[in-house]
Amino acid sequence: MPGPFDPLSSATAAAPPASDPSFSVYSAKVELDIDFLARSVRGVAEINVQPQSKNLPYIRLHCRQARIKRVTVEGREARWDHNDPHSHIYLSEKSTVHHHKVLRQKVEEDGGEVADENLWVFVPPRVKIKELDASSLDALSMLGDLTAGGSVFAPLKVVVHYDIKHFREGLHFAGLEEGDTRYPHIYTQNSQFTGSASCLFPCVDDASARYPWEISIRCPRTVGDVFRKAAPPLTNGISDHPSTNGALTNGLPNGIHDDGDVQMLDADVDNFGLSEEDKALEMSVVCSGDMTDDIVDPKDPSRKTVSFTCANAVLPQHIAIAVGPLEHVDLSDLRESDDDEMMGQAAIRVHGFCLPGRSDEVRNTCMALAKATDHFSKTYISYPFTSYKIVFVDDLVPEIAHAASLTLCSNSLLYPEDVLDPLFPVTRKLVHALAFQWMGINVIPKTSQDWWVIYALSHFMSDDFMEQLCGRNEHRFRMKQMADRVVELDVNRPSLQALGDFLDVDPSEIEFMELKAPLVMFILNQKIKRMAKMGVTKIIYKVLLQAKTGRLQNGAISTEDFIQIVDKYLESKPIPDFWRQWVYGAGCPHFYVTQRFNKKKSVIEFTVKQTQGDRSELESRAEDLDPKTFLKDLNEQKNGMSKKRPTRVFTGAMTVTVHEADGTPYDHIIPIHDAITKFDAPYNTKYTRLKRNRRQKERAAAAQGIDLNGDGELPDEIPLYCLGDVLDTEKEIQEWGFDEWTKEEEEQMANEQYEWIRVDADFEWICKINFNQLPWMLVAQLQQDPDVVAQAEALQNLSSLQPSKLVSTYLTRTVMDRRYFHGIRTLATEALAKCAIPRIDDIELNWVGLYHLEKIFQELFCLPGSHMVRSNDFSDRSQYLVQCAIPRAIARVREPGGKGLMRSKMWILDKLKFNDNSHNEFSDCHYVAALLAALAQQLGYKDTSTISFDFDEDEQDEIDFQRDALNEIERHRRLDEWIPSYQNIVTVTALQCQCLLMENNIIPRKMLDFLQYAKPGAAESVRLKAMECLIDLNMMRHPAILRYLIFTLAYDPSPYVREQLYYLIGRGLARIAIGDKKEEPSNQVFGGLIIEQDASTDSRAAMIERTQTLEGAIKALKTELGKNKVFEEQMRNALTSPIPSLKEWVRLLDICGLVFEPKTSLEVMLKLPLSWKVQNQGKGKMRFYRSMPYRQKPLSKIKQEQASLLQQKAAEKRRRPSLADEPNKHWKWQYPFVWAISFYDTQTAHPGSCVKAADTRPISKATRVTFPTAGITLL
């Protein structure tokens, strides 16, 4: 095995040359014997390989962190060579953090998605490969894997005996740390990328090898048996001492609590503080496939063996295992009786598993899964497996891990029935996990660039079900929000297809693909439906059918395969521009649309201009680096993620709907082919507009008590349907302070030729549309268009208008009308905050937006005629969401100088003080958190000016309010410690409030306020928030904080905490690198006084480089931390930790690369050898011994070309043991190297003198070391 400083060529010097695969895997069988306390596994992997020819000299497998003990091929002992990538995760005694570049080069090929096979099994010469008769049954069963006319060979059975004594990845042990009060359980760490399975068992771990599996797991029978051991007690058992912070150990019942202090006198289970009930809990094994056996070991009743069979051919990374005291919840019982009768025997069994005490939460969280299973089976094809299992565990990264017939989920997704906020997002995630069984496990991507197909189709399946479950408005409104988000994010990004190569760079890449890919499928569905087709649902059915029938080879789909299926379905109506723009192209179009009515031609003249490629947009002012995305930007740059320019011209058809004067909508299709498109839409109405006049007449008639529906004035008109027609009586108008259209505006409205115009009415584009309409047209669209997307567009345009009483009036009516979708009402609530200003352009507004927000809350949630808040009632979810949105909107109300308005502060504080949830069946934790955040946002005002001529007359009131507000935040924080809220959200919000106030210098900065929550024992969400606050307050510069954060990053047992902390530390490093952005020193305004200051051009240029370019930020970071001894010491200590996975270890090296200059040399001191002497002792006896002086010259000079040959021979003779063999032992390198050496003083050498060597390490006695530059050989 080569060391970290060996030449790259030596890594494969002893291995056979790589060649094309000459076999395929027929089936695999794995037997695992799990030891919880030792956290080790003994295993046997039996792999049946199918040779493709008679000449098969070796078989290449993937195997990480395992110690191979024995390998047989067809029962005969086989020679093997194992190059474990985990053996590179170590530092020599003389290595420093400056060697990060060399260390990373040795492991980077193993840390990515594709890694070379590292276990070479040489087929023994006596094993002969037999060719089968093509007509035999055995041959016929294998013909499916061969091409037509190929020979059929008998499979070879490869058996690998191994053990894993130390796990870095692949299998996670939870609940076994000292002081950890959780139930002990383990689970596999599955990933959508290759490499995770080979960390647990040898296999062919690539993205295309699919084969059937048999899994056998031997484990303790009960929780008591987990801790029963014959060996001396280990130090990693469950402590019998209670947690240091019991209120925050776990907000929900998942812990083992001791019954008292017990002395550990022997190895009996009773000494671990377990109750008798806890000891008797049965250990359950859940695995991919179907259970075949559950047998208690006859020789050891404390252990059992559970066997599973997965008959479907699946990828190794899709084999998942979970072992623990899991409670079973039959989710099939939640299926409605009608659906149960309809599905009959075809109904799929759905099983839920969780740790003890959380079964009710599983039922509540997974309530929709049985219904979703039936929907997918009826809409598409039958479920590819026999049952579906979902298991909830701790510390899982990411939140959901997909496997064959099994999904591993984080316990953070569980929520009780009295919590409302997680309802929709969690249900959508779980439904998508179920859909992934069809499209993701059953059908896989052919290459990494085809991942977008999997994400697009699986999310379309889940969104289709969610639309049926939650309604069309919910679905379309979320699609509108997703489209706006994609337009915002899809800047300088690669195409959707090319993004698949970079999904492992940062989690945000997967998030973006999960955002854009479903939208692309949504607009494709809109386009197909316009062609009178069934839509994408039929296409998904065809994809699954082809995978089932074998037309999709190996069940793998490519982009070209999917396009071919779509084109065939469209029947000679291909859409090549669609794929070019949305799959192979990058960016989103920006349309600037104008219209003009040509009365002479009786047409509406449209001009559509695309601006996404304009120089003005591409050369916009550079933005400052964002600390939250600093690591992502660095990783993208390092991995060569190119920034692709947006497509210059998007082409296609766009639907424009004109609602003409008589209220009739007319659709017009505008073909867009160029950057500027002009189109004339014919005008159809031949008489003046009537609708708004009728509205005014109805209002006047209602005021006079005249019924227009009887013999009224407008008998020939169609009855008007209109939302937002509330609060329109004269009394209500005066009470609410509403404003109405002026006579001039009404006359102008009467002369308009149409009510309103919608661009892209069919929602077939992911785009930004700039289309200015008059205010009354926007109001008409908001009130009269039934499409929730049209209403959202109208609200967005209304909120962008100049604030006025009229705008506030219609926004208020929108909030008050319960017929609107709740998303529209909350959008209107947020828009009202923009109207909460005192004046604009000498027009007095008198905080009208704030008054309307207060009035809305009083009308909906207070006692009649009073400002006293009613007891909470969240039974109406729409009203609950509005109730939470109003405090968030009021929190944004500010004085012109940016300071929080006292009126708003007192309003929020009163609602927090008098909040009453005693008669509410639902929890108010999220509502209280919203009030706390709003209160801190109002308090958190940072006065950036250094000179002020404004004197606050109410300074004492401000001090009193600040004291009351801080006391209220502290009261809720302490209350949450005694009565924990859902996921301790109140404590998390209170910590965020404290951080915001400290950041704005409202209260003094105190590290201890956060350190008490950052230590182990607190809930994970609280710990991470506390550490996030420390980093946001720039406390990473403090040596003690820096030590603790780096130590936690390297040694915390939870992979979830390590994962999140890595990105938090990246944010902290970004803050140090970017520095504190100071205000421009020139032309600052203070109370109307302009103070001019001169600034150095060089300093301003340096600040711009530091804050706007990655190169400048990295340069500044090296200056700030490059000589920080504390950071250097802690990073080196982190690199020696036995806990981080291979990927995490590479991340640590990346952090070192940001701060420390790389070095490619390692200085070591070598003793010069003594000279050999011989003494003739007579009678044929010769005595050889070493004595002075030291040798300083080689015996013979070795030529430069001989060095590599000697090095290869030395490497073939031995193999350095892996760190996985003995993790606690510090191994030294024992491999040769071509040394570069220089003498200190060769002329005055004396006994004990040394030489200085570069790029060296300790060497073994038997190693020949050559020094070509000095012509020296040491033996």
From TrEMBL:
Residues 1-20 are annotated as: Disordered. InterPro entries: Aminopeptidase_N-like_N_sf (IPR042097), Ig-like_TAF2 (IPR057345), Peptidase_M4/M1_CTD_sf (IPR027268), TAF2 (IPR037813), TPR_TAF2_C (IPR057991). GO terms for biological process: transcription initiation at RNA polymerase II promoter. The keyword Transcription regulation applies. CDD domains: M1_like_TAF2. GO terms for molecular function: chromatin binding; RNA polymerase II general transcription initiation factor activity; transcription cis-regulatory region binding; translation initiation factor activity. Residues 586-773 form the Transcription initiation factor TFIID subunit 2 Ig-like domain. Keywords: Initiation factor, Nucleus, Protein biosynthesis, Transcription, Transcription regulation. It is found in: Nucleus. Functions as a component of the DNA-binding general transcription factor complex TFIID. Binding of TFIID to a promoter (with or without TATA element) is the initial step in pre-initiation complex (PIC) formation. TFIID plays a key role in the regulation of gene expression by RNA polymerase II through different activities such as transcription activator interaction, core promoter recognition and selectivity, TFIIA and TFIIB interaction, chromatin modification (histone acetylation by TAF1), facilitation of DNA opening and initiation of transcription. Belongs to the TAF2 family. This is Transcription initiation factor TFIID subunit 2. It comes from Diplodia corticola.
